[in-house]
Amino acid sequence: MDVPRIWEETVDAHRDAVLDAIAHATARVVHRAGVGGLTMSAIAAEAGIGRATLYRYVKDAGAALALWQEHGVALHLRQLEDFAATADPDRRLAVVLERYALNRQHRHGPGHAELSHSEILLDSARAKVRELFSELLRVERDRGRLRTDMTSCELAAYAVAALEACSDMPTADAARQLARLVHDSLTKGHAPGEGSIAPGYGQLGE
User: Which burial class, exposed, middle or buried, applies to 9 when counting CB atoms under 10 A from its CB (0-12, 13-18, 19+)?
Assistant: First the structure.
């Protein structure tokens, strides 16, 4: 007997909702207590679910942490795409560069030094960011606003690599400064404007 499609969709939606709740709960625990304070009991209590339910979705705290990181990377990519789609054309490149810089700089509470995203996950995310940057840079080149001694793909790779340094920046302001420096090095003196480019941003679980 075939399972009704509407029932399958309901089950999938429920599973996604529980996984989202676990990811957000993991984020809140890490922000509050650090990775050292991340336990299955703490996650279950924060998510408002039983431990038995939690274990059906993640096998241990490490798996919950990986789930949160995967959700966080996906969220940051969606944010970049949203900013690229809605920003003023004259400021689009600067806006997206700063958003990426802020995402890379963001700290996760007292245990942030212990966090380590999967290299496979990060490599996939960086490839998508490079693709997005390349598209934005091609538009800037068509408008005569981009340096011409390197290809758009090469400049996109440079921008992603340079902004990785934001993970070591002590403050968001420092990350913004680096984003402006990268923007200036990519363009031909077309300044995006003074002050903060991207508005305040919320992180998964905050």
Answer: exposed
Q: Is the pLDDT of residue 29 over 60?
A: yes
Structure pTM?
0.68
Those residues with Cβ within 8 angstroms of residue 158's Cβ, 6 or more apart along the chain or in another chain: 150, 186
CB 180 within 8 A of CB 109: no
- The per-residue pLDDT for range 11-26, each reduced to its tens digit, is 788 888 999 999 999 9
SS3 percent helix, strand, coil of the chain, rounded to 5, is 70, 0, 30
Model pLDDT for residues 46-83, shown as the tens digit of each residue: 999 999 999 999 999 999 998 988 888 888 888 899 99
Q: At what angle do helices 172-186 and 152-163 cross, to 10 degrees?
A: 160
- DSSP-based three-state secondary structure for 151: coil
Instruction: Kindly report the length of the chain.
Output: 206
72 contacts 203 by C-beta, under 8 angstroms: yes
- CA dihedral for 174, 75, 79, 96, sign (positive or negative): positive
